[in-house]
Design a protein that fits this description.
It is a single chain. It is built from eight helices and nine strands. It is α/β, with parallel strands linked by helices. The strands form two sheets. A six-stranded mixed beta sheet has the order 5-6-7-3-8-9, sandwiched between helices. A three-stranded antiparallel beta sheet has the order 2-1-4, covered by helices on one side. A hairpin with a 2-residue loop joins strand 8 and strand 9. Helix 4 packs antiparallel against helix 5. The radius of gyration is 17 Å and the shape is globular. 40% of the residues are buried. It binds adenosine-5'-diphosphate (2 copies). One adenosine-5'-diphosphate (ADP) binds next to loops. Keywords: Antibiotic resistance, ATP-binding, Nucleotide-binding, Transport. Its main location: membrane.
């Protein structure tokens, strides 16, 4: 079926800038792909289109079998997103209240909400700060809270935009372990942007490299390293 899959051949023009110029690749269910490229390459712009918050100016895009910006609400039910640079959670609410609100937005039955919450809270060791407002959390805690929120509704695709940026060494290892576990045990498709090559080496077999809005390389990390 289409769940967990992603097909892109998409273009996005801002006034004069063609930020994304026919970025073309396919991701199969259960893959863990590193999406790499220098600053300004077009990664954020493509991810915004994949998550349905930005409308392309051309091309095709299919996520979980749907067109994300046309069916934004349904798309949101099957994806999770974490931005290392900023939280998606309500800043002033206790973390647990944000999670409860999200559970309602996703229309999770109480049993599923509690089961998923308990599992994620334990995996990510979130209990010690579950009742603190997000603005009081350290970066590492905030990222763990964001991960619980992103995985609460068992999404088929998880987008991670610089998920280890600013984390200390221990927090980076925990983050990678968690992502690997979600991919292995739940079969979650993962698309990960990062500037940390260790993230790529520990997590991803496949890398897609873009620059100037085009795919430069799509293949195994080992082959890419052999080439350069
Ligand atoms: P990356 O995430 O790889 O750093 P972006 O997708 O953020 O790249 O940016 C791609 C290009 O599009 C850059 O040249 C950037 O300046 C431009 N760009 C991004 N967002 C906008 C916007 N809202 N308006 C105009 N240009 C933008
Ligand atoms: P990111 O790449 O993670 O989105 P940036 O700092 O590059 O972070 O961009 C922050 C915001 O500014 C984004 O929403 C992006 O779309 C927008 N942006 C980026 N480049 C430009 C630009 N050249 N002109 C206008 N907006 C831009």
């Amino acid at each position: 079926g289409p769940f967990g899959t992603l097909r892109t051949m998409v273009t996005r023009q801002y006034e004069e800038t063609r930020a994304v110029n026919g970025v073309d690749f396919t991701v199969s269910a259960g893959e863990l792909v590193a999406y790499l490229g220098p600053n300004g390459a077009g990664k954020s712009t493509t991810i915004k289109m994949m998550t349905g918050v930005l409308v392309p100016t051309g091309g095709l895009l299919e996520v979980n079998g749907t067109v994300p910006w046309r069916d934004r609400e349904r798309n949101a039910m099957h994806i999770g997103v974490v931005f290392g640079q900023r939280s998606q959670l309500w800043w002033d609410l206790p973390l647990i209240d944000s999670l409860a609100l999200l559970g309602k937005l996703y229309r999770l039955p109480g049993v599923a909400y509690r089961r998923n919450l308990d599992r994620l809270v334990e995996l990510l060791d979130v209990t010690p700060f579950l009742h603190q407002p997000v603005r009081q959390l350290s970066l590492g805690q905030r990222m763990r809270g964001d991960l619980v929120a992103a995985m609460l509704h068992e999404p088929r695709i998880l987008y991670l935009d610089e998920p280890t940026i600013g984390l200390d060494a221990v927090a980076k290892v925990r983050m990678r372990d968690f992502v690997a576990e979600m991919n292995r045990d739940s079969g979650t498709t993962v698309v990960l942007t990062t500037h940390d090559l260790v993230d790529v080496e520990t997590l991803c077999d496949r890398v897609v490299v873009i620059d100037s809005g085009r795919v430069l390389y799509d293949g195994k990390l080992a082959d890419l390293k052999a080439r350069y």
